[in-house]
Amino acid sequence: MAISRRDRLRAFGLRHLRYVIAAADHGSFRKAAIAIGVQESAISRRIRDLEDEIGAALFVRSSNGVRLTHAGQLFIARARRALNQINYAAIDAASSGRGETGRVRIGIFTSLATGFLTQLFHAFVDNNGDVRPEFVEGGPAAHIAAIQHHQLDVAFLTGRPTAEGCDIVHLWNERVLVAIPEKHEYAAQTEVTWDDLRDRRFIVSENDPGPEIHDYLVKHLSDLGHHPSVERHAVGRDNLLNLVAMGQGLTLQSEATIGSQFPGVIYRPLAGAVLPFSAIWLPKNDNPALRRLLSLARDMSRKSNAIMAPGLISK
Q: What distances in angstroms separate CA 98 from CA 34, 45, 129, 196, 202, one per listed residue?
């Protein structure tokens, strides 16, 4: 009896998913193999087998490495979610076996290098040793959907998003900064204005928060009567900033992300641009750890006297 394509695809296991994700994250089969601890040929062969069964190329190969095709981007988004759910299942079982009392699943959209979130999570861990925080990076749409489907307890997002059935509270603000090469003509300025950016070329990542930065630039520069040049690149933050250092374009960053400095890149505040951050969760979520985290976040927000300001989404 002939085996259907669906049945054959079910035979591809977690190893294939991990190989695809590693190759996408590292931009190279060789680097992915080193990170995982297998032969490069094993990764290349299994990804090729998977592509043959799917009937679509997941990567564009070149002498400089690999990058995801459109089909690959669609595939990896679901692959990451699948692996996350499997990891959660394993963690839940292990926690139960160890007798741990709780966990809180947290969606983040910004760097944990510095700022309000860093202080919040340090304080929470210090005072709640019986609770394990789990972090998931992603964009607003994915986090809100995960909240609504009980896959996350809380998410910290830019602006003041709204979602059916969810509660939201504004907690803190961050300045918007322009990332420029260290020898750029604006390096001598203490801040940069929108007029300064009118005719500049910008680069953003195809991944979050790139699309939101793109929309932010288009809105504000269009208000000045100028359609901005914004190029999207299939790279992560480090490689994007490397392109900035090479003079390939400017980009925007939130204040917390610059805790990790990048060679050849400096940051200048964008005059008048302030980005609010909010927490969003389901009010019927009765996780005690979530309630403790929200209570601490509100208390820290009050003490820091966060200034309400227009932000990246709502402005």
A: 32, 39, 14, 57, 50
Residues of the chain with CATH 3.40.190.10: 103-172+276-304, 175-274
Q: Which residue has the tokens 């595939």?
A: 75
**Residue-by-residue pLDDT tens, the chain, 315 positions:** 444 545 544 545 778 888 999 999 999 999 999 998 999 999 999 999 889 888 899 999 999 999 999 999 999 888 888 877 777 666 666 654 444 457 899 998 765 556 888 899 999 999 888 888 999 888 888 899 999 999 999 999 887 888 889 999 999 888 899 999 999 999 999 999 999 998 899 999 887 778 888 888 888 888 767 777 889 998 888 889 999 999 999 999 888 776 667 889 999 999 988 888 899 999 999 888 999 999 999 999 998 754 443 333 333
Fold assignment, 5-77: Arc Repressor Mutant, subunit A (1.10.10)
Radius of gyration of the chain (CA): 22
